[in-house]
Design a protein that fits this description.
By secondary structure, this protein is mainly alpha-helical. The protein is 73% helix and 3% strand. The longest helix has 22 residues.
Length: 310
C-alpha cells in the first residue's frame, strides 16, 4: 500500500501496528522497529520530514536493542557482560586490568543487523534530501560497514549502501570520492546478475550523472549510451528507465552544442514518459523542458513556447 502511494490508507495501519506492538511485544521488538521505519518512510515520502526523523531514530534504537535481546549469541554475550561486566586480566605489575567480555571464538559482541542498516540508510536519505549532508555521512558509512561485515562485500545490499554514500558525495560535489564507490557497486552487481540487468543499468546511470555534474561529458555520453542499450534489451524501448537515460543523454548533447541530437533524444524521452507516466509526472516535465530547450536552440522558439513550464 505504501509503494502504491496510498499514504492516507497506510498511515492508520502503521500507527495501529505500533500502538498494538509496543505493549504486546515491547517497545524494542524488531516488529515494532519495522513498523516505525515504515511509518517514517511514509512521512518522508509525503514531505513530513519533522515527523519522519524521530520515528527513524526510534526505529534504529529499537532495532539495535531488539538484536541485542533476540539474537542468541548477542544475548549470551550480554548475559556474561551483565554478570561480569568486565573480566579481570593480570598486568605485568601484578595489578588487574579489564577487557570487554567476548563472544565464543574470541569475537567481541557484534550488534550489527541488516535491518538496522536499512533504517540508517533511510534516515540518511532524509538528511540528504534536506541538505543535511554532515548528518547523513556517518549514518551511510555505518550502514555500509554493517552490510560489509554481516552480508559480505559482494552482497546486493552492500552495493545499495555504496551507491547511497556515492549519491551523498555527488550532492556534496565530492566527485572523486563518489566515483570509486559507484564503480564498486557496478562491479558487485555485474558479478551477481551479469552486465545485462536493469540493476546494473541503474548504477551505470548514476555514474553517468556523476560524470555530467563533473563536466566530464565524453565519459557521461559513453556510459549513458551503454545504459540505453542495456535498458532497451532488458526493459524495452518504451520503459520509463530507458526514457530517463535518453533524457539525460539529451542534456549532454545540449551542454555540448549538439542540438539536433538533443532534439531527437529529448523528443524520444518525452514521448516515452508522456505515454508511461502521464503529462504531469516530474520526469515528463523534465523531458518536455529539455525537448523545448533543443527546439529553441535550433531557432524553433514558436514550437517550444507552448511546452515551456511557467
Amino acid at each position: 500500500m505504501y509503494n502504491a502511494g496510498r499514504h492516507a490508507e497506510a498511515e492508520p495501519l502503521y500507527r495501529d501496528a505500533i500502538a498494538v506492538g509496543k505493549p504486546s511485544l515491547g517497545r524494542d521488538h524488531s516488529t515494532v522497529a519495522i513498523a516505525l521505519g515504515s511509518l517514517a518512510r511514509l512521512y518522508r515520502a509525503a514531505g513530513r520530514h519533522s515527523e519522519a526523523e524521530p520515528l527513524f531514530k526510534e526505529a534504529i534504537a529499537a532495532g539495535r536493542k531488539a538484536l541485542a535481546r533476540e539474537h542468541p549469541m548477542v544475548s549470551a554475550a550480554l548475559a556474561r557482560q551483565s554478570a561480569l561486566r568486565r573480566k579481570p586480566r593480570a598486568k605485568r605489575d601484578g595489578s588487574m586490568d579489564h577487557e570487554p567480555a567476548r563472544l565464543g571464538g574470541g569475537r567481541e559482541a557484534n550488534y550489527d543487523d541488516p535491518d538496522v542498516a536499512i533504517q540508517l540508510n533511510n534516515l540518511a536519505y532524509l538528511y540528504r534530501s534536506t541538505g543535511r549532508y554532515a548528518d547523513a555521512e556517518p549514518l551511510l558509512k555505518e550502514a555500509l560497514a554493517i552490510s560489509e561485515r554481516v552480508l559480505g562485500k559482494e552482497h546486493p545490499d552492500t552495493a545499495i549502501s555504496l551507491s547511497g554514500l556515492a549519491r551523498l558525495y555527488r550532492a556534496m560535489g565530492r566527485y572523486r570520492d563518489a566515483e570509486p564507490l559507484l564503480k564498486q557497486a557496478i562491479a558487485i552487481s555485474e558479478k551477481l546478475v551479469g552486465r545485462e540487468h536493469p540493476t546494473v543499468a541503474i548504477w551505470l546511470y548514476n555514474l553517468a550523472r556523476l560524470y555530467q555534474d563533473a563536466d566530464r561529458y565524453p565519459d557521461a555520453e559513453k556510459v549513458l549510451t551503454e545504459v540505453i542499450r542495456i535498458s532497451r534489451t532488458t526493459l524495452g524501448e518504451a520503459n520509463q528507465g530507458t526514457g530517463r537515460a535518453r533524457w539525460a543523454l539529451a542534456n549532454i548533447f545540449m551542454a555540448t552544442g549538439r542540438y539536433a541530437e538533443a532534439l531527437e533524444e529529448g523528443g524520444a524521452a518525452r514521448a516515452i514518459h508522456e505515454r508511461v507516466l502521464g503529462p504531469n509526472h516530474q520526469w515528463t516535465v523534465d523531458s518536455r523542458q529539455t525537448y523545448a530547450s533543443a527546439l529553441s536552440a535550433l531557432g524553433r522558439s514558436a514550437e517550444a513556447a507552448p511546452l515551456i513550464s511557467p
